[in-house]
Amino acid sequence: MLQVAAAPGLTTGSAPFVEEARHRGELYITQPYELYSEENQESWRRLYRRIRPRWELYANEPFLEGVEALQLPADRVPRLSEINRRLEPLTGFQTKPVSGYVPAFLFFDCLRRREFPTTVTVRPPDRMDYLPEPDIFHDVAGHVPMHTRRTFADVLVRFGDCAHTAVEMTREVTDVRERDRRLINIIKAMSRFFWFTVEFGLMKGPRGICAYGSGLLSSFGELEHAIESPEVQRYPLQLEWVINQGAEIDHYQPLLFIVESFEHLFDQVARLEKWMREGKLNNVAPGLPEISESDLNSFLEAVVD
Ligand SMILES: [Fe+2]
Asked: To pair with 37 at 20 to 30 A between CA atoms, which of 64, 170, 260, 278?
């Protein structure tokens, strides 16, 4: 029987446009909107329709306002150019389409320039509930509405500053092994902080505890679990705990941290940088995440002013 090739689409794990860019070594790409298949569009519609009522229950208020301000579409994959047109006047942030994993320094440095590396692919329909790697629903529906809020956007920029400080703090260390060891510890501490705040953070809200972390806000199942499950440990954010706590990625988070406000979160990033300067991040507890060679190299090769 004659097989008709399906439209290539932009499905995570099966997106020739993105894979070819990656093979050519191109990290920053465009969003080739015409390549989204009907299946991709339907996946977005399903993801949005399912999670919307849970956002009403569990998302923080600025996130919901951000969804409105961006006019995030319910019925189709968003065009990043449209998102940027609405986002940029609010906080200066822009989405920046990428072909895959962005090594740690480059990622944080993008944030410092108010650019958010954004995946353009859509998760496959049989993996609606969980995907370890980001897709456009995680990045645009989970992260970007938070970027409409000035204080939160400033937290991300400050985080980028921390990456620059990490380079400054370690480039003078002449013993190469000691330099790499310190840098790995600092990147681990920064990654854990990012994980337990920007990705999985909870905060106090007028209606009780709510979510601002994008890993929660883009997961239909985990969003409810994070707020409602009696099994989840929820504690006020303590910097000394967060930087020493292993971050596990392949199941619902058993431990989450609560901030008072985005001003509180901003103050904690400032403390993180202060602790880095004092050398407190040079010896954090071993454990996840593992810091890859490409993450380490991205810091070693960084050009900072
Ligand atoms: Fe994320």
From this structure: 64
